[in-house]
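Appendix B. Raw example, untouched.
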Amino acid sequence: MSDTEPHDPKSEESPAPVAASDAGHHRHAEDKVRHTRTSAAWVAITIAVLFGVALIDFIAQNTRDVRIEFFGASGRIPIAVALLAAALCGAIVVLAIGIGRVAQLRLNMRRQRRHSIRHHDADTTADEAS
């Protein structure tokens, strides 16, 4: 619009009126970030790359050999390899304990479900008999 043209308020587009209940929902929808599998994959890849860089730095700084003795076996290996092997063994132990606990909880849930179904069936049969 130029300075010489008269101002016509009707020619300007105004946004449609929004009900008070819709305003909060609309604002919330704009603020909400949509999480997708692709965004989750990018986050996982970023974390993996950072972890990889830290691991390479750790190995590069810990190349000195150390003597390891374990149940009569002995040898010399880089300290980084020894520490990573120890960490891996610890992770395997924690994983095994976690899997055992999850299996135990699932077995308990299955038993409780069977028990409640049997009692429900017995109650239904008793109600029908009376």
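End of appendix B.
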